[in-house]
Amino acid sequence: MGTLFFLASIALLCVVPLSGSSAANAKRKGRLAVQQQAIVAAPAAPNTGPTPASGTVNASGSQTASWVGTTISPGGNSNTESTCMDNSPVLGCETFTLTVNGTQSDWAGKKVQVLLSWTSITNEYDIYIHKGSNAGPLITSAIQGPGLISQVAFIDASNLTTDSAHPTTVFTVHVVYDTTPDSATDEYHGAATPVSTATTSIQAAPQDTGPKIGYENFAPPGLLVPGTALSSGFTTVEYMGRGAGEPSIGANSNWVTGVVNFQSDLQTEFVTFDDSCNLSNPKATWVNRRAPTSNFIDSDPIGFTDHTSSTANRVFASELTLLSPDTVKISHSDDDGVTWVPDQTGGIGSAVDHQTIGGGPYHAPLPAVGAGYPHAVYYCSQDVAAALCSRSDDGGSTYGPSVAIYNVAQCFPGLHGHVKVAPDGTVYVPERSCGNNPLLNGGTTTVVVSTDNGLTWTLKPVVNGSVPNTPATDDPAIGIDAAGKVYCLFALNGTNAAVGTSTDQGTTWKNIFDVGAGLGLTNIAFPAAIAGDPGRAAVAFYGSKGGSGDSSADVYTGVWHLYVSETFDGGDHWTTTDVTPTLPMQRMGLLRGGGGPMDRNRSKPSRLL
Length: 609
What we know:
Layout: H1 2-9, H2 23-31, E1 54-58, E2 65-68, E3 85-86, E4 92-101, E5 110-117, E6 124-131, E7 138-142, E8 150-155, E9 168-179, E10 189-196, E11 203-204, E12 224-227, E13 236-239, E14 248-251, E15 259-264, E16 267-273, E17 284-288, E18 302-307, E19 313-320, E20 328-333, E21 341-342, E22 353-360, E23 376-382, E24 386-392, E25 403-407, E26 420-421, E27 427-434, E28 444-450, E29 458-461, E30 477-480, E31 486-492, E32 496-502, E33 510-514, E34 523-531, E35 537-544, E36 559-567, E37 575-578, E38 586-587
Parallel strand pairs: 1-4, 3-4, 11-33
Antiparallel strand pairs: 2-10, 4-9, 5-8, 5-10, 6-7, 6-9, 12-13, 14-15, 15-16, 16-17, 18-19, 19-20, 20-21, 22-23, 23-24, 24-25, 26-27, 27-28, 28-29, 30-31, 31-32, 32-33, 34-35, 35-36, 36-37, 36-38
């Protein structure tokens, strides 16, 4: 009850400004490099660009385009569109000109799929698609990897300003040789084809007719505080709580001290609230108590609060390090950040992306771990060719070996959500695309489950007879109530806020409903979920209405708000509220795929109280 009522009283998790960071591009590019590659000498013959250099695609499929790259370049691990040079043997890229033929009505229900494929997982070729020329507006991009053998992006041709007199639009497919040590023997093959946008249908969630839930938003104060060690590497000042591109939030159990912790980049803020009717008192007081390991370089900051008893809580603050060094930095505190203890890095040797920390009881039969700390603590991260988790049996001070929970042959592109532990010790990691070729609307939302304390893992798709396919565009989220019921929120087709429930550890799912139905939402992003007493849960997500252009691109004209939906009967009925009706979270696209454009996932609501 306490957890749900706290969530119902504030929406602090997402009240973060939309300011960017110069480290955003380095975040993704630095950590996804496999290793530094040597720059090779230029070949004897100059690079000439793709063969052929141009092509046409139409909606019927009678015209499709295909080409092969010819540039030989090692990339450079941090090669991006802004640093590459066309047909260069060093930081190389090349341009294919694509003409899309047809009017808006021709392309209704279809998109242009631009697919690059190759054979070696050591290579990564990235896609940047512009309208008109490489100097024109960026329409969309795809920059996943390395560790993959394909890259895919889509052009929404149904939004093109064409008519019968002018039925064509020209795009440039700018292919960047990101990390390509084997480009001489493993060039990419490109193809542009029409694909259907037919989506999986889903039933609207039955509405709860009871009293509505109220929310109050608390913004960080925006005070300038000393920044002794910033992610940029410089020493300066920074705004308190205003640098959280991907914030985390936690609260102590049963509201013992009344303190909430808020992870914002390298800062860990501790917030206390004044619920009195004295309007002259500040309603929230923020204190920055940075962990000693939160310094200099971070990537994907994570906070987690483990409720070990009704009066004891442990707060974790973790930072990735862009593989320099190849570790993760974690500290924990048992007194709301007054003192911190640095931990051993996670058992994973890579910490490439999507790190997450979770904890909870051990599953029976109990392992022989002693009595030093009552809970198991799990650290998970996406590696190059797999996702892995390691377990700590001493409260996070040390971690055991990493265990692969799936590989890219099972789930692609391998981007998982946050690890959660059930009251019986079952461990869950949600994943957005498993068991299918992950092209448009491909793959299935899946929970990866362990019932032996992280030693082995099983993939369980989130599907049922009414919703047999559950392709998602964002990392799913899991909440588990006190009775062990699992609530899984995912962005079905990128357009529906779908929630399914399971009472048998994800083996079967019921009531897969759209909790955003009836609100006019056309795009869904960044799910988060939590559950409390039996039958009580809440989920949160970003939603936008209408707007033109790709919702992941800078040119998108939609406006994003934060929505929260609650259930009090185990997922049979839901109530959904726009908790930022007068304060949009973002005006433009929300990039869900890496890189450093302006629409990088600022204010990502990936964690929920």
